[in-house]
Amino acid sequence: MATIKLIAMDCNGILTDGSVYYLENGEQMKRFHVLDDMGFEMLRRYGIITAIISGENNPLIAARAEKLGADHLVMGEYDKLEILRGICKEHEIELTECAYIGDDVNDLPAMRACGLSFAPPNAHAVVRNSGAFVTSVTGGNGCLREVVDLILEKYLHQSW
């Protein structure tokens, strides 16, 4: 197993539970979980690059990525594997040195190309059955944190 140098993820369904709340004035709201904040901090501590790749172009995602200190945020792009390839090229790393967390069919090409892939239990069945490691917690409930803990403990032999 190659050392994981980058963790990439979708946002909706991973950092959120996939729900979108609409206020009467049409504004959107999304719910995020604070356990993922520490997950990003732990990744920074160990020098692991982070990337959020979302097909949605939404200022809520941009604000959350900024709060988390994500190294890369790409929104409004559906070819996530091509985006991930570009990020890997920029950092001179291989796809096998990446982990990807996804929940729907548009994440599958990137998930299949990476050294490790993860899906929350609330992911689409095709994704859950793709050979990805299925986390115990659902998206939006600390899913990223569970992945971080697993990678640090099992693959890097590190802990907080």
Write the layout of secondary structure elements.
Blueprint lengths: L5 E4 L11 E2 L5 E2 L5 H11 L3 E6 L4 H10 L3 E4 L4 H12 L6 E4 L6 H6 L2 E4 L5 H4 L4 E2 L8 H13 L5
Parallel strand pairs: 1-4, 1-6, 4-5, 6-7, 7-8
Antiparallel strand pairs: 2-3
Helix pairs in contact: 1-6
A few lines on this structure:
The protein has 160 residues and is an alpha/beta fold. 35% of the residues lie in helices and 18% in strands.
Query: What pattern of helices and strands is seen along the backbone?
Result: EEEHEHEHEHEHEH
Mean pLDDT: 93
- Strand order in space, largest sheet: 5-4-1-6-7-8
Task: Outline the biggest β-sheet.
Answer: 6 strands, parallel
- Residue fraction in strands: 15-25%
Q: By helix and strand content, what is the structural category?
A: alpha/beta
Radius of gyration: 15 Å
Roughly what percent helix?
Answer: 25-40%
User: Ends: how far apart?
Assistant: 21 Å
Question: How many helical stretches?
Answer: 6
Task: List the uncertain runs.
Answer: none
Shape: globular
Give the total of beta strands. 8
